Amino acid sequence: MGASDLVELDKIIDAVTEAKAKAKKRKFEESIEVIVNLKGIDLKRGKQINIDTPLPHAIEEGTRVCVIGSGNLAYNARQAGAYKVLEAQDIERLGSEKEEAKALAEEIAFFIAQTDLMPLVGRILGPVLGPRGKMPRPVTPDTDIGKLLSEFSSSVKLRMRKNLVIQVKVGRLSMDPKLVAENIQAVIVALEHNLEKGMNNIRNVFVKTTMGPTVEIKI
């Protein structure tokens, strides 16, 4: 039985609707976040969660993806509208520009790198990307980069750090509750597939707006 069977979509929709109703009016549009508290995992020995998960509904346009490559890959990435395209000489320059490298790591949501450039990327950018869980996905020069960029545009990173908690943005206040709920369901399914004991490693799940109170999703 999958997570989609265990967590009924209607229950998630009800929780999202309640969270939206409890949100106070702000001068900006709040995000909607899901918080998953885990259990039964030894952080020192257990499998760490650090996965990119496609959502069925994009949260916002313009996800910042950086493609590191050369030749056809770099050309195709620019044609496909990648937020930033870097080549080998750009990475080498960042080796002496530590603050710029840190700023890049903060600015970009996802990195993609040509396989033969991965050693260079690892040596120079590894110290800033690794701790942030943003090491690039390696790709070959003939990868359909347009398709991959489209996938990343509706993806989120599920990452467990020092605590047994995963918190991630799954929508905006203006989104239909059903769309947000389907994004939350995708997150739960991804975690079920990547946790050693599946749903048995999930203690509870909450949804909230950026500054609003939490609402529990019954699982």
Summarize the structure.
This protein has 219 residues and is an alpha/beta fold. The chain contains nine helices and ten strands.
Structural description of this entry:
The chain is α/β, with parallel strands linked by helices and 219 residues long. The chain is 37% helix and 24% strand. The protein is built from nine helices and ten strands. The strands form three sheets. Strands 8-1-9-10 form a four-stranded antiparallel beta sheet, with helices on one face. Strands 4-3-5-6 form a four-stranded parallel beta sheet. The protein has a two-stranded antiparallel sheet with strand order 2-7. The radius of gyration is 19 Å and the shape is globular. The relative contact order is 0.29.
List key phrases describing it:
Rossmann fold, 4-stranded parallel beta sheet, Ribulose 1,5 Bisphosphate Carboxylase/Oxygenase, 37% helix, alpha/beta, globular, 4-stranded antiparallel beta sheet
Low-confidence blocks of residues: none
The DSSP helix count reads 9
Order of helices and strands: HHEEEHEHHEHHEHEEHEE
What's the mean pLDDT score? Answer: 91
List the helices and strands and how they pair.
Blueprint (H helix, E strand, L loop, with lengths): L2 H4 L2 H14 L8 E8 L11 E5 L10 E4 L2 H9 L4 E3 L1 H7 L3 H10 L2 E5 L3 H7 L1 H4 L7 E3 L5 H9 L1 E5 L5 E8 L4 H18 L7 E8 L5 E3 L2
Parallel strand pairs: 3-4, 3-5, 5-6
Antiparallel strand pairs: 1-8, 1-9, 2-7, 9-10
Helix pairs in contact: 2-9
